[in-house]
């Protein structure tokens, strides 16, 4: 073999070896950056918005962020499942979420340490599979204005969207503390209204509002916010309903509401607004049943020690808030369990036309110093009596369930006025069970939830009421 042939062979072998090394390096780099995922999968992308230092002409990177909320939805801009848009501090105005994908989820969230402020937030028709996380929706804190409209709205046609870990309020606490009656009427709107189906409202703080979270209907056939999930939210300082569900298939669990004020719009002094911690009704004249609703682990207390200084909890000693109320009827296949209700009127749990439903392990007593409170299971408004209900393991001041002639009753305890016997601190609103009281071990596990209102596991023998000792 000639020297030139030998060198040519070595050159070819060297070239092949280098190619193999390059290919291995390329594959290693792709795996390190997430490209080693299954075929068709793409690594999630991150984008940034900065209303102070950004520009709409920027590519949306951390170093070159977009400027406005609208830049997120600029024409032709698409996102994959798992993509995250980070919002830096500043005013985002009236923010509107648009567009969507058929599956997965995209997230718009506060950047670490940032406080993105919005005047209002709206999930428009067609917005789907978006999560908004950790924002502040407050018109007064965004631009110094007020609205009596909806602060957050999920439009009809907005589906599978989520609002979570956010603050929703008409104004700051400092501003609301200066309000008198007419200021509340003219400056506070409803916190969150859900009209589209299969949306979720999770772990939000809602304050200084007219109403808290409303799941609404759009037709006499019952369309609207079906499949809505309202979980882990707090409503504090409000003057109409805290929560509302007027559609089938909603889940309202582990929420709280406290401090309902007797705000009276001018001209309604003779008949002020009807107020409830939770309310279901239709209001459209139909008798379409509202079915498959779950109310679980909610804590509703009309007032606590904190309050704003210029508005009363009562109007002329009356018109305080009612508790958990389902009016109209017919209702069917509801689960009402582990709820704690303390209000200052007799109608603490009023169920009209409730059929084939479970009312189990609730605690319902008056808010001190009121003297009346009851679980009422009665006829729907056309006089049809309820049927097929189960009433077990409830701890209540009194029961008014005679209309439900065929209901299964067991292991309920009428507290009467023996509050100090049963509760840790009744006057302060702590209704956890006191050691040695008759509710401990007195429940049946039949139809009972396996956890309590604190999401603590129950152990046999179960206890009566919302809390396990």
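^ structure tokens above, recovered residues below v
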């Amino acid at each position: 073999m000639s020297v030139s042939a030998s060198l040519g062979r070595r050159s070819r072998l060297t070239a092949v070896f280098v190619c193999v090394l390059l290919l291995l390096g390329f594959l290693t780099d792709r795996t390190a950056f997430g490209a080693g995922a299954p075929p068709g999968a793409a690594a999630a992308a991150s984008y940034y918005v900065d209303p102070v230092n950004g520009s709409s002409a920027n590519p949306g990177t951390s170093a070159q962020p977009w400027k406005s909320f609208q830049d997120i939805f600029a024409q032709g801009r698409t996102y994959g499942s798992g993509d995250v848009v980070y919002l830096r501090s500043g005013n985002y105005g009236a923010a509107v979420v648009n567009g969507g994908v058929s599956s997965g989820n995209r997230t718009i969230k506060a950047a670490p340490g940032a406080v993105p402020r919005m005047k209002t937030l709206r999930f428009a028709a067609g917005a789907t599979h978006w999560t908004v996380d950790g924002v502040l929706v407050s018109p007064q804190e965004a631009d110094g204005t007020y609205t009596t409209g909806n602060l957050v709205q999920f439009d009809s046609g907005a589906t599978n969207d989520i609002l979570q870990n956010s603050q929703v309020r008409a104004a700051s606490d400092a501003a609301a503390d200066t309000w008198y009656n007419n200021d509340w009427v003219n400056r506070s709107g409803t916190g969150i209204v859900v009209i589209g189906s299969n949306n979720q409202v999770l772990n939000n703080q809602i304050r200084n509002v007219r109403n808290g979270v409303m799941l609404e209907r759009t037709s006499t056939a019952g369309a609207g916010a079906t499949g809505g999930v309202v979980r882990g939210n707090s409503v504090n300082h409000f003057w109409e309903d805290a929560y509302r569900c007027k559609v089938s298939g909603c889940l309202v669990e582990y929420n709280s509401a406290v401090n309902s004020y007797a705000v009276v719009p001018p001209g309604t002094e003779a008949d002020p607004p009807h107020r409830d911690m939770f309310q279901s009704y239709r209001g459209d004249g139909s008798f379409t049943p509202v079915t498959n609703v779950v109310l679980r682990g909610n804590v509703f207390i009309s007032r606590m020690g904190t309050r704003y200084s210029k508005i009363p909890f009562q109007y002329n000693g009356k018109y305080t808030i009612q508790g958990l109320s389902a009016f109209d009827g017919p209702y069917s296949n509801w689960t009402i369990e582990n709820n704690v209700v303390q209000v200052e009127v007799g109608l603490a749990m009023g169920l009209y036309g409730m059929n084939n439903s479970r009312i189990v392990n609730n605690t319902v007593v008056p808010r001190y110093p009121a003297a009346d409170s009851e679980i009422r299971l009665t006829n729907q408004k056309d006089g049809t009596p309820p049927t097929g209900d189960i009433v077990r393991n409830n701890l209540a001041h009194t029961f008014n369930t005679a209309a439900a002639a065929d209901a299964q009753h067991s292991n309920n305890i009428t507290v009467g006025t023996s509050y100090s016997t049963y509760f840790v601190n009744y006057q302060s609103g702590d209704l956890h069970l006191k050691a040695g009281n008759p509710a401990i071990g007195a429940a049946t596990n039949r139809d009972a939830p396996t956890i309590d209102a604190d999401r603590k596991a129950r152990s046999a023998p179960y206890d009566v009421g919302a809390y396990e000792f």
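The first helix runs from residue 3 to 32.
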